[in-house]
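[step 3/7] fold_predict: job queued, chain A
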Amino acid sequence: MAEGALTEAAVTVVNKSNETIPTPIAIVGIPGGLEVRHDQLKELVKSGKIAAYEVIGRQVVLYWRSLDANQRVDLPLSLTAAIPGKFTGPASRAYLYYTDEHKTWTDPMAITINEK
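[step 4/7] structure written:
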């Protein structure tokens, strides 16, 4: 993509159990060169789509209070291409807050950002 352009990462979290689960977390690895739009994350909290968030380095941590049985959450995560280059982010993962030894991992995202 071009430097300065906007893109979205599609974040999907699914409760595959037949029970409500408490305190799920999704950690989304963001490739270098991309910047997270904090105003969009604040809107997700305000709308109730997530309970809270943190941006820690190249990772966006999304928190929910609970997910209902078989609930699926689809979120767009807005990103701005800030620095030209080829980048790969850390792997993304999801788990329950108190059982981080049971993580579900996904492959890392990669991007090429071209100069203007």
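[step 5/7] annotate
The CA atoms of residues 40 and 57 lie 18 Å apart.
The longest helix spans residues 38-46.
exit 0
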